[in-house]
Amino acid sequence: MTLLLETVSLPRGKVRDLSTEFAAGVHLIVGPNGVGKTSLLNAIAGTLPLSAGRIHLDGRPLTAGSRDVVLAPNAPPEIPWIRAGLLLDFIVSLYPATRRDAKAAASIVERLGISALLNAPLGTLSAGTARKLMLASALIAAPPVMLFDEPTNETDAASIAAFVDMVREIATRNVVVITTHHAKDLESLAPAVLTLE
User: Fold this and answer.
1) Rg of the Cα trace of the chain?
2) Cα 72 from chain centroid (whole Å)
């Protein structure tokens, strides 16, 4: 499993002519605010068009809306009235070929400590809980490429430990790309690090 970026330039941030390769495993993207870390994840996910360059997965062009990629954003969509569990179910439904079974999904939700909150409206959740909902959605969807934007921000220590353990389990077969300002939270995963400047 190889995600290849060839001379990628983005319309936002400072990413220009970036060529890099992400194999199965954990990859951190670090750098100052505004450099383009989140924009790079959005480009890989297909929600931000490239200014230039190409992105391939195992030699095939990665297209917008690809079910080979899931992005856990740093904040949920702004639909505060939707029930948290309904949003999770909708995201996971987009990945029929890779999503985890019901038992595994329940375990992920439990390990992140959000089981009791799935009936709550999204707008009533704290920022940390909403972030954990996005993490759970991506971990349950489990396509070949999994993108996480600042997953440990506003997240409690127990949930960070659970997230790290679950990422360790999937990184043997999936490409996991994580933007972070808190690399120490993830150092036990022995990640490769890409620094954007």
Assistant:
1) 16
2) 4
d(CA 81, CA 6): 40
pLDDT tens digits, one per residue of 18-57: 999 999 999 999 999 999 999 999 999 999 999 999 999 9
2-195 under CATH 3.40.50.300, yes or no: yes
- pTM recorded for the entire structure: 0.95
CB 80 within 8 A of CB 126: no
Q: Indicate the average pLDDT of the chain.
A: 94
HSE of 94 in the Cβ direction (CA atoms, 13 Å)?
15
H helices of the chain, in order, are 37-45, 84-93, 102-111, 127-141, 157-170
